């Protein structure tokens, strides 16, 4: 029996043993327009089941989810289960034109997948245009039956979804930006559990309240569901103990402030150890790109001690205490926070590397095409914004999904020549020549053999402007073995590699003017997109995709496509 077949047999035995108490959970998501009033104005907002944010799904490690998505909205839609490994179930991953064609108006599709070996907080969101501005919700994975958290059981658990709100239709915002070539308008508010909070007009009656009682320890499941903005998060006068991130447990550490890039989740314990009162939870922007307009407002919720709550209508509740948040550009705080993460146990980090990749990431400016009028080139100096990895600006197909094209052998949809290294070496974080500002558009994938051990250096560049980019890889968790500033130096920086207990994540914040190194084993076959989770940058092409070959036998091969897979 070969090594892979032995591995597959052991995996099967373990799977059958662990599946004994697993359940199949079935849900129905109806995508529909719903009247939602925020900032004094009512909008026809796209929601799931009329709920904003959408329903929280609660499962156990080992459970199977079946979610029928019915599209009654006027836009095409897909749903992505952010951070779910999707072992052999790539058809259920959800990114539009990558693993499936969109669900058209009036159509439906059932996502079927098993969550295996993951515990903590993930989330789900639309992965089509900018619909995820309002189509999102929490996905909570509890330990298997009979198992417990590796920390004292909290008295209560509260999902905290940080969001971003436009006082207009977000689809119109991105369409206008695509038409003009300029950056899209910044949002008008941030939200906590879809409510802007006390600092915005017409909002204070609906401010989110998180209850706590003196002496109890609660679990906050914090999710950054904002479209385009990394966010600081703080609770006045309370320390937060980080115990997990992206559905992986961490060594506990205490902090007064969190920073989450879009896509990231952080589980924290909070103790009711302050005088009973009301305390603001607050979030506002971490803005690393210089001279770029951004939403500088602050969203709040209230941590309310039971004895300080107002059960009686005529009670005058005390004004909540406000935390002091870091400065918008406080990269030092972000660095200290991100470097505090460690895996709870010794990590199985791949060491003998088969694929050593180096990807530059950054923005760009395309010259105005000769057939375009000036109003279509409203980027800096009459250009159009773009973005790229290794000078390739990713273009999604329109008539097939990448996975479908590969499985059916359809030619001309993509190529497999994405470069392993930048086509041109340069001073990535220095002063750059304008000749580097125009990337090449294309649909290029990088092929990986099943089981190959992969290392990727993700290098920010100062093309147009350096920026902290939250890079998300679908279908995988990875270890972040090092982060730093400046240009990555393979001679000096390898000494910083943590191969003992690096954190496992699905989204990594690549430092502004810096780099991050990640490692993973390519054990999940077929097509997986890796992209910046600032949605404005996906639209501009800051993405690439891996094509992971099938291994040996059924357990190392993607399942066949489901019969109700949407057609283009």
Automatic annotation (TrEMBL):
The keyword Disulfide bond does not apply. GO terms for biological process: lignin catabolic process. Binds 4 Cu cations per monomer. Its cofactor is Cu cation. GO terms for molecular function: copper ion binding; hydroquinone:oxygen oxidoreductase activity. It catalyses: 4 hydroquinone + O2 = 4 benzosemiquinone + 2 H2O. It holds the Pfam family Cu-oxidase_2. Residues 31-145, 157-307, 417-550 form the Plastocyanin-like domain. Its EC number is 1.10.3.2. Its main location: secreted. One of its GO terms (cellular component) is apoplast. InterPro entries: Cu-oxidase-like_N (IPR011707), Cu-oxidase_2nd (IPR001117), Cu-oxidase_C (IPR011706), Cu-oxidase_fam (IPR045087), Cu_oxidase_Cu_BS (IPR002355), Cupredoxin (IPR008972), CuRO_1_LCC (IPR034288), CuRO_2_LCC (IPR034285). Lignin degradation and detoxification of lignin-derived products. Belongs to the multicopper oxidase family. This is Laccase. It comes from Gossypium tomentosum (Hawaiian cotton). The lineage of its organism: Eukaryota, Viridiplantae, Streptophyta, Embryophyta, Tracheophyta.
């Amino acid at each position: 029996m070969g090594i892979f077949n032995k591995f597959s047999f052991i995996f099967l035995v373990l799977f059958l043993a662990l599946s004994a108490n697993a359940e199949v959970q079935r849900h129905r998501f109806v995508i529909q327009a719903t009247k939602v009033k925020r900032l004094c104005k009512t909008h026809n907002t796209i929601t799931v089941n009329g709920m904003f944010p959408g329903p929280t799904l609660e499962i156990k490690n080992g459970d199977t989810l079946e979610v029928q998505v019915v599209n009654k909205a006027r836009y095409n839609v897909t749903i992505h289960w952010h951070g779910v490994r999707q072992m052999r179930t790539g058809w259920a991953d959800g990114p539009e034109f990558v693993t499936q064609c969109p669900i058209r108006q009036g159509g439906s599709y059932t996502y079927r997948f098993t969550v295996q070996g993951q515990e903590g907080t993930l989330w789900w969101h639309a992965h089509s245009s900018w619909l995820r501005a309002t189509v999102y919700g929490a996905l909570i994975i509890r330990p298997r039956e009979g198992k417990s958290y590796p920390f004292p059981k909290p008295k209560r658990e509260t999902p905290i979804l940080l969001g971003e709100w436009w006082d207009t239709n977000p689809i119109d915002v991105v369409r206008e930006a695509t038409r003009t070539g300029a950056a899209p308008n910044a949002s008008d508010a941030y939200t906590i559990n879809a409510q802007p909070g006390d600092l915005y007009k017409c909002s204070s009656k609906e401010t989110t309240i998180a209850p706590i009682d003196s002496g109890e320890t609660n679990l906050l499941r914090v999710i950054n569901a904002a479209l385009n903005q990394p966010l600081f998060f703080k609770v006045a006068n309370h320390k937060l103990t980080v115990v997990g991130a992206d559905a992986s447990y961490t060594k506990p550490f205490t902090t007064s402030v969190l920073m989450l890039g879009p896509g990231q989740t952080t589980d924290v314990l909070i103790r009711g150890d302050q005088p009973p009162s009301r305390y603001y939870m607050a979030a506002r922007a971490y803005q690393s790109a210089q001279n770029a307009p951004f939403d500088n407002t602050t969203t709040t919720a209230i941590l309310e001690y039971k004895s300080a709550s107002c059960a009686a209508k005529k009670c005058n509740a005390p004004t909540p205490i406000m935390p002091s948040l870091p400065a918008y550009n406080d990269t030092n705080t972000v660095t200290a926070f991100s470097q505090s993460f460690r895996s709870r146990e010794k990590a199985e980090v791949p060491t003998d590397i088969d694929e050593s990749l180096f990807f530059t990431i950054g923005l760009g400016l395309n010259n105005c095409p000769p057939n375009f009028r000036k109003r279509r080139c409203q980027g800096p100096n009459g250009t159009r914004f773009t973005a790229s990895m290794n000078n390739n600006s990713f273009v999604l197909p329109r008539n097939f999904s990448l996975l479908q094209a590969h499985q059916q052998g359809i030619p001309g949809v993509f190529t497999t020549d994405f470069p392993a290294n930048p086509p041109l070496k340069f001073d990535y974080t220095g002063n750059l020549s304008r000749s580097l500002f125009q990337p090449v558009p294309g649909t290029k994938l990088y092929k990986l053999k099943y089981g190959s051990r992969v290392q990727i250096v993700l290098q920010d560049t100062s093309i147009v402007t350096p920026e902290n980019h939250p890079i998300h890889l679908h279908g995988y968790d990875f270890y972040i073995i090092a982060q730093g500033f400046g240009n990555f130096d393979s001679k000096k920086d390898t000494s910083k590699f943590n191969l003992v207990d690096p954190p496992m994540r699905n989204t990594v914040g690549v430092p502004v003017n810096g780099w991050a190194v990640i490692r993973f084993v390519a054990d999940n076959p077929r097509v997986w997109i890796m992209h910046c989770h600032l949605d404005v940058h996906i639209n501009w092409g800051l993405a690439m995709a891996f094509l992971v070959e099938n291994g040996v036998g059924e357990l190392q091969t993607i399942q066949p496509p489901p019969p109700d897979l949407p057609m283009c």
